[in-house]
Amino acid sequence: MLEMQPKTVRPNSYVGLCLPSGSLTIQEIKPNTTISLGKYGSFQSNFLIGRPFHYTYEILDQIDEKTGSGLRIIPPSELYAGIHDEGAQPPADLEEDEAQAVNGKEGAQFEIVDQKGEVLVRTNRNIVDDA
Length: 131
Fold this sequence. Notes:
Layout: E1 13-18, E2 24-29, E3 34-36, E4 42-44, E5 57-64, E6 69-73, H1 76-79, H2 96-103, E7 111-113, E8 119-122, H3 125-130
Antiparallel strand pairs: 1-2, 3-4, 5-6, 7-8
């Protein structure tokens, strides 16, 4: 018989935690222990036990009195609020070609430059499209 994967974190199980830096750390969730994530903070393992997988959690400075937890699930609307800003428009003083580049129209190439004007990152669209 096929065993179903648990939908929530269980005691003495291992979980992968993706940190804001993009690195992944594997932690064993033992009851009544502290999970330390270095500069990102620490929290009690009991706060994660019984919580669902595949969510983004914020470590709270103080325990929330309503939930009794030091972790908070960040809703997708809050997590992606800056990315899905439909009202964003380029500045009015840009030329038409520059405005199209800011909006991503007409197959525009993008470059990211530092404060000195040196190119840090450049799109490689032609090579990607030809591959």
